[in-house]
Every structure is written in C-alpha cells, then in structure tokens.
Amino acid sequence: MTTTHQRQQKILDCLKKDDVCTILDLAELLSVSTMTIHRDLDKLAEQGAIVKVHGGAMLRLAAPSSNPSSACLMCQQNVRSQLAFVLQFDNDEQKQACCPHCGLMMLNMQDPALMLATDFLNGNKVNALQATYLINPALKTCCSPAVISFASNEDAQRFQQGFGGELMNFSEARVFLNNAHAIPKNY
Q: Per residue in 35-52, pLDDT tens?
C-alpha cells in the first residue's frame, strides 16, 4: 500500500510525462478510488504544484517569461481571468490571450504543446481541444465576434438559451474565426 506522499509523487511524475491526466486514469494507475485522487489533487493544488482542470489535473504552468505584462499578444487588451486563453510551449514559455477569440487566432501563428481555455462559468482551465465555444452571444467581451468557452457542453447550451449565439467545438470555432477574419480578394 502506498502512502499519500508516494501517491502524490506518482501523480506528479505522471503529469510531467503526459502534461494532463484524468482523475479516472490516475485512480486506475494507482489502484485507488477517484475520491482519493480528488483529495490528493486538492493537496497538490494547495501546494501550488498542479492545477485542477475539468476531469483531471495538469502541472502548474510556469510564469510567462516572454511577456511579463497581462496584455494580450493579439490585441493588447488586458487579460481577464474569466476569459483567458493560454498557450504553453515545449520550452515552458507561456503566452496569454485575453479571450478564446484571440487565443484561437494566435494558433495561426504559433504551434503550442498545450492550449488551455477558461471555463466562463467557474474559471477552471480546460483543455482547449475539448472545450465548447459559444460564438457571438449577446454579451459584450473584449473582442468581436465575442467567443466564450465552457468545459461542459450542457452548461454552454444553457448559457446559449439566455444569451443566444452559436455553439461550436474547437475545430468549428477555428474555421469560423478564420473565415470571419478573411480578407476578400479584389479581382
């Protein structure tokens, strides 16, 4: 039987190897309950070693090294925690965007190792590839068209009922924004 410290070290080792691990995978790997994993992740998060994300955890991202300010690299607006989009690179460099709109547009210029969107309702970081995006809700954000992200498709659908807009997955949102920013050719 492993001690709490041994389990937490194995969790950290797993996260160093895989960037993001699910609670179910960790429970299976360590042969413990998901509640035990939740408690271990809570302790590691309190210590600042990890960040809990929807359904799992990831290592805490390094402080941004190339841009110490809190300005978006795309539009220079302030990065608000409720909308933040983070790109993490293999060299531990981190770049922030003020919102999913700018974050998705940054992908046209950069190839990150990990992308994190912020769940609009609870502020948790989620894998941007798994997020649901609400495009053009009747809600003013920093950029246009407004884009907000959700960890849960069900939450996004409920939010859409009140604020309108169109729900899209990661790929659909990227295509939509690229088309929205396309410059028409003059023949």
A: 999 999 988 888 778 877
